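Field notebook, page 221. I keep forgetting to write these up properly, so this time I am using the form the group agreed on. The chain and the ligand, D-xylitol-5-phosphate, are recorded exactly as supplied. Prediction of the bound pose follows.
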Amino acid sequence: MLSSILAPSMMCVDYARFSGTLRTFEENGIGLLHVDVMDGVFVKNYTLGTDFCRNLRKMTSIPLDLHLMITEPEWKIAWFDVQPGEWVSVHAEATDHLQRALAAIRACGGKSLAALNPATPLSALDYVLDDIDGVLLMTVNPGFAGQKLIPATLRKIADCRKYLDERGYGHVRIEADGNVSFENAVKMRAAGADTFVAGSSSVFRGPDLAANIEELRRCAE
Ligand code: DX5
Ligand code: ZN
């Protein structure tokens, strides 16, 4: 089983405690910072963008995990100045050119992930398996923090792990995004997820971030 990685969701950070939060993440071995980019079209919300990413990189050495909930990402990857080793996910539903988008991420030295909404079948991955380092499975519909897990997505995580392993892609990671509570993290890990987006349901639930990280790590190990 791939080792577990926690990726706190930066849209859930309390801005009054922003730099202290980053220090806490660094001191507690956080592996990735999940940055939700929403364009008001692919999802009905606006969140973080290119300036936020640029400034965040100046404040921490933790690699970014960009989750692009934007249409036609293949033309916009260049705007984000992706750094080697950063993760970038693009939605299969947001483009007619998924392979082009994934290749554009790798061309910058990024780790490429295909993101799938809850209802999108795994067959969307059939012809891009050689182009991905991971799959981001939405466990809620994208657009907002604080939603409830869609139960069928637990089965989808298990199906996805099996699908990848059977085809010889055991190294491809599975990132679960949406309502990763302590309780749900246990179920997601058992199903085969290895990377966990931590938002209002876990790391940002209550003021003690370090204790929440420790608890989530325990649940996701
Ligand atoms: C959407 C986001 C949210 C959120 C996760 O892509 O990544 O899912 O911040 O946090 P929860 O669901 O726990 O509020
Ligand atoms: Zn996300």
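OBSERVATIONS:
- The helical segments are 18-27, 50-59, 98-107, 152-166, 182-191, 209-220.
- Strands lie at 5-8, 33-38, 64-69, 87-91, 111-116, 134-138, 173-177, 195-198.
FOLLOW-UP: compare against the apo run.
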